[in-house]
Design brief:
The structure holds 2 protein chains of 2 kinds. Chain A is mainly beta. Chain A has 5 helices and 29 strands. In chain A, the strands form 7 sheets. A 5-stranded mixed sheet of chain A has the order 2-1-3-4-5. In chain A, α2 crosses α5. The longest helix of chain A has 20 residues. Chain B is an alpha+beta fold. Chain B has 2 domains: about 80 residues, no CATH class; about 110 residues, 60s Ribosomal Protein L30, Chain: A, CATH 3.30.1330.60. Chain B has a 4-stranded mixed sheet. In chain B, α2 packs across α3. Chain B is elongated, with a radius of gyration of 30 Å. In chain B, about 25% of the residues are buried. Classes of the chains: A mainly beta, B alpha+beta.
């Protein structure tokens, strides 16, 4: 905390300096509407945290609203949330500045920014104060459903948090996202969906022996596969209508596993496992087109296809020659497959469950290190991997839309749970609290 | 003392039961009691008595024969059921695998070899082979490994003359462990292929 305050203090000092010249660098500005608070030139959004005070909110659900926004900003791992007592806030409001805030108080608290939310009849009005400048640098209105605490209401608050994060750093937050996963196994298994902050969990009506949920890029649909004594299928679940439909049913003596949507959302990549090994196929969502086979396994098992964000390539796991599973990258049409994870000559190991980061740079996967699987990342162009976990068994990583946070399955608490890791600061938080949670898939940013 | 007496009583009861049983079993082979024809004034009544006795003996014998054949049929059915159950046990005996392998070990080939004549003798029997894995390895990739194990078993049976269409393969991956636990003993039990008879006669025919 002390160190963070010191960092914040450095911001303040620098802000005071740059504010005068009007030359403060807008970090990572991505579009013309970005109106971030002024920050020092060497601010590194991956390491430095911006100190933020979120003022108490009056009106219905005001306390909940503030608590959710504070937590969202905290979970983005880019802010330090300063505790503000009621008395502090009152004093701050009665200050002399034109905006109604006494900025000198926030300077003493080492706050770089202040978030001020006001309840409105149809939602909230948000003002972002730059403490060093002593003025409001951004405002916005966010509609909220009239019924508080519903999933829609929470998602709307998360969207406001993400926009506030963007005002400050240039990068939208990831609060308005959800994680689909499997809890339990066999007949008792069900797909569940939980908000990025661990709240608002629901169970999706899941066909028996459903496994491997995957999000459509739009966030409005899930795909999953089924296994076992009823014919294996790929099932699509429409989250807006709550309707399921079978996209395709596996022929006798084969099964469909590891479905994933292509980046453009028009097709599903999956593996068909049968008597001649497992091969990767692509099939359109209409269900009218014949599946296209992308790999020629020749008895090997190829599975877990994941599209690159530009849709041009696919990373997957394969065990050519029936050796240990390794990661391969091929073109989207199945040509030009090459081995990604043999770091050195004949350095073979059990490597599986790849997920391509939304920014296209990294592939997260699991590798057997000693007795246990651990999460690693490797550049999509190859090279030396980075190991991100070491405690317990850690598996099945899935990237958040910010290409910075990962959700994965870990036994570090004694049983399988989902955990979220910030790959920049290595901060870890437990997402689920029911044993047997696994096979998580992180959605895109959700708009509904 | 008490126990001894009770034991003696029990033994006696068992003995007499055995004797009765022995007599009972012998009865059909014994001719009806032969009585010498009697002469004299009471010859008619004596003959009638003889005839009655003979008729009763014949009726008793018939009753015993009926009871015996029913018992024999029941015993035969029991034997057949036991034999059928034994065949069923042989047909559904599991095979096991080494870690991350789908190759059949010699002892598991022997288990499959024992199934082949039963399948040949019962051509309407259809079976389903379910491949399973232990909990190590990727949850999802293990579904592929389970399928490979089931396919490996099927390929062996087909090589030994069983029609392809009679053997269905599915995989449960690591989703249905036989043994709980995270040790090699549990892992070994879980790396298996299970067999289900999906259709065929109630009682299997002996090869």
């Amino acid at each position: 905390m002390k160190a963070l305050r010191a960092v914040a203090f450095t911001f303040i000092g620098a802000l005071a300096f740059t504010a005068g010249t009007g030359g403060g660098r807008q970090v990572l500005a991505q579009d013309t509407t970005f109106k971030g608070i002024t920050l020092i030139g060497n601010y590194d959004p991956t390491r430095d945290k911006i100190s933020v005070a979120v003022l108490p909110v009056t009106g219905a659900f005001g306390d909940s609203l503030r608590a959710i926004v504070q937590r969202d900003l905290d979970f983005s791992d880019r802010f330090t949330i300063l505790p503000i007592e009621g008395g502090d806030a009152d004093a701050a409001r009665t200050g002399g500045a034109a905006s109604g805030l006494n900025y000198s108080i926030f300077q003493r608290l080492n706050a770089a920014a202040v978030v001020q939310m006001t309840s409105m009849p149809t939602g909230i009005h948000v003002a972002l104060h730059d403490v060093a400048k002593g003025q409001v640098v951004n405002v916005g209105d966010f509609a909220l459903p009239s019924a508080g605490f519903t999933r829609d209401w929470r998602l709307a608050v998360h969207r406001a948090s993400d926009e506030i994060a963007r005002w400050m750093t240039g990068q939208r937050g990831i609060a308005a996202t959800r994680i689909a996963y499997i809890r339990g196994s066999g007949k008792a298994a069900a797909i569940r969906i939980v908000d990025s902050d661990g709240a608002g969990e629901i169970t999706v009506p899941t066909d028996e022996n459903g496994i491997s949920p995957a999000w459509h890029p739009s966030g409005t649909m899930l795909a999953y596969s089924t296994y076992g004594d009823v014919a294996s299928r790929i099932v699509l679940f429409d989250l807006t209508t709550a309707n399921s439909r079978t996209l395709t049913t596996a022929p006798r003596n084969t099964q469909y596993i590891t479905p994933n949507f292509t980046a453009d959302g028009t097709s599903i990549l999956y593996a068909r496992s049968g008597e001649n090994g497992s091969d990767i196929y692509a099939v359109g969502l209409s269900g009218n087109d014949a599946p296209r086979r992308l790999t020629a396994g020749r008895g090997a098992e190829n599975a877990s296809p994941t599209s690159s964000p530009d849709g041009r390539r696919v990373v997957y796991v394969g065990n050519a020659g029936n050796g240990a599973p390794e990661l391969y990258i091929m073109d989207a049409d199945g040509t030009d497959a090459r081995l990604l994870t043999e770091y050195d000559f004949s350095d073979k190991n059990y490597r599986s469950d790849p997920d391509w980061s939304p920014d296209g740079r990294l592939i997260a996967y699991q590798e057997q290190i000693g007795r246990n699987f651990q999460i690693r990342t490797i550049r999509a162009t190859g090279g030396t991997p980075k190991q991100l976990t070491s405690e317990g068994v850690n598996e099945q990583p899935s990237w958040a839309p910010d290409s910075r946070h990962l959700v994965f399955t870990s036994t570090r608490s004694g049983v399988r749970q989902l955990w979220v890791l910030d790959t920049e600061t290595f901060r870890m938080r437990q997402l689920t609290t029911s044993a047997g949670s696994r096979l998580a898939a992180w959605s895109s940013r959700l708009t509904q | 003392m008490n126990a001894t007496r009770r034991f003696a009583g029990l033994t006696a009861a068992l003995l007499s039961a055995t004797l009765i049983d022995a007599c009972h079993k012998k009865a059909p082979d014994q001719p009806a009691p032969a009585v010498a024809p009697a002469a004299g004034p009471n010859a008619d009544s004596a003959r009638r008595a003889q005839e009655d006795a003979a008729r009763r003996a014949a009726e008793d014998a018939a009753r015993r024969r009926a009871a015996d054949s029913a018992a024999a049929a029941a015993a035969a059915a029991r034997d057949a059921a036991a034999a059928g159950a034994a065949l069923r046990t042989t047909l559904t005996a599991m095979v096991h695998f080494d870690y991350d392998q789908s190759d059949l070990r010699p002892e598991d080939r022997a288990i499959l070899d024992a199934k082949v004549p039963i399948l040949t003798a019962n051509p309407t029997v259809m079976i389903r082979v379910a491949g399973h894995t232990d909990e190590r390895g990727s949850d999802e990739y293990n579904l592929a490994l389970g399928q490979r194990r089931a396919s490996s078993v099927k390929a062996y049976l087909v090589q030994h003359g069983i029609a392809e269409a009679r053997v269905q393969t599915i995989s449960y991956g690591e989703e249905r462990p036989m043994a709980q636990g995270a040790d090699e003993n549990a892992y070994q039990q879980n790396r298996r292929a299970e067999f289900d008879i999906t259709s065929g006669p109630q009682t299997l025919r002996k090869p």
